[in-house]
């Protein structure tokens, strides 16, 4: 029974990947520095016979990586990294260090121990598109966050071609669901719901004409695990999307109902705003 590492496993998507792996009979260990994740997200798995616990540590710590990889891993699901776009703009060097250098250190351990790795990237590195976006669409990273994800993707593929390391790169579109954070890095669905619960107006950035493609987090996690264990996905970049385009104003109206005011504000990070986002 293989041991699976989930970096960032105490975070939003990571927590659901852990759940999927346990459901499939896998042993799971989590590495998370808890800068974005929370121990409480993993409470449900406490005492589970195949959950080997949370190691609070960083992917840049070589001693911590050695301790984990020495146990023998079947696969690494690499989800750890900065998730806050604004933070990447304010602290680009820190984002580069965690997301690019951290990924490289993890890749080195995967190469040393011949361990397959699935890297979770982002749809935010795509350029605007008139139609649905596939994996061949032009990329145009608009923030240090997106640029670092693209750099880490290329590192993963470089290790695949140079060292024959089994690598899968996945770009989830907008993911929503239970355990999603509400802060600046939280998704728009969670943010709108929280505003309604607090009896505050729903705030749109701009007029709400932007579109997004929303994937339920449990579906996203199942896709990641399927892709991770598929030989056919090795060396590939894969989008995770539904192909259903939703206008943000329509989303706000659906969540607001008849009793909540919707108001418009300027986008706090206009350079990062993508007008249309729908997967093929």
Task: Give a description of the structure.
The chain has 280 residues and is α/β, with parallel strands linked by helices. The protein has helices at residues 12-23, 62-69, 85-90, 92-113, 144-163, 188-197, 217-228, 248-256, and strands at residues 3-7, 27-32, 51-56, 75-78, 116-120, 167-172, 174-176, 202-205, 211-212, 214-216, 237-240, 246-247, 262-265. A 7-stranded parallel beta sheet has the order 3-2-1-4-5-6-11, with helices on both faces. It has a two-stranded parallel sheet with strand order 7-10. α5 links the parallel β5 (116-120) and β6 (167-172). α2 runs parallel beside α4 (92-113). The longest helix is centred in the middle third of the chain and has 22 residues, at 92-113. The model has no long low-confidence stretch (mean pLDDT 93).
Give a count of the beta strands, DSSP E runs of length 2 or more: 13
Strand order within the widest beta sheet: 3-2-1-4-5-6-11
Termini separation comes to 36 Å
Q: Mean of the pLDDT scores? A: 93
* Number of helices in the DSSP assignment: 8
* Rough outline: globular
What would you call the structural class? alpha/beta
Strand and helix order:
EHEEHEHHEHEEHEEEHEEHE
The largest pleated sheet is described as:
7 strands, parallel
Low-confidence stretches: none
**How much helix, percentage-wise, in residues?**
25-40%
């Amino acid at each position: 029974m293989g041991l699976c590492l989930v970096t960032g496993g105490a975070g939003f998507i990571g927590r659901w990947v852990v759940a999927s792996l346990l459901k499939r009979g896998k042993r799971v260990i989590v590495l998370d520095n808890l800068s974005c994740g929370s121990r409480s997200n993993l409470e449900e798995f406490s005492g589970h016979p195949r959950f080997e616990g949370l190691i609070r540590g960083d992917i840049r710590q070589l001693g911590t990586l050695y301790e984990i990889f020495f146990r023998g891993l079947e696969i690494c699901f690499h989800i750890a990294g900065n998730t806050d776009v604004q933070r990447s703009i304010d602290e680009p060097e820190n984002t580069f260090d965690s997301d690019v250098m951290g990924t490289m250190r993890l890749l080195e351990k995967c190469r040393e121990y011949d361990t397959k790795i699935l890297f979770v990237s982002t749809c935010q590195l795509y350029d605007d598109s008139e139609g649905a976006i596939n994996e061949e669409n032009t990329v145009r990273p608009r923030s240090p966050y997106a640029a670092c994800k693209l750099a880490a993707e290329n590192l993963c593929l470089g290790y695949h071609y140079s060292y024959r390391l089994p690598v899968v790169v996945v770009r989830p579109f907008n993911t929503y669901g239970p355990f999603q954070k509400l802060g600046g890095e939280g998704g728009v669905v969670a943010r709108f719901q929280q505003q309604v619960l607090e009896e505050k107006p729903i705030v749109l950035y701009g007029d709400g004409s932007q579109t997004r493609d929303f994937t339920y987090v449990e579906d996203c996690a199942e896709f990641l695990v399927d892709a991770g264990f598929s030989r056919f996905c090795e060396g590939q970049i894969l989008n995770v999307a539904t192909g259903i385009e939703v206008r943000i104003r329509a989303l706000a109206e659906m969540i607001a109902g008849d009793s909540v005011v919707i108001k418009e504000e300027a986008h706090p990070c206009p350079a990062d705003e993508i007008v249309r986002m729908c997967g093929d």
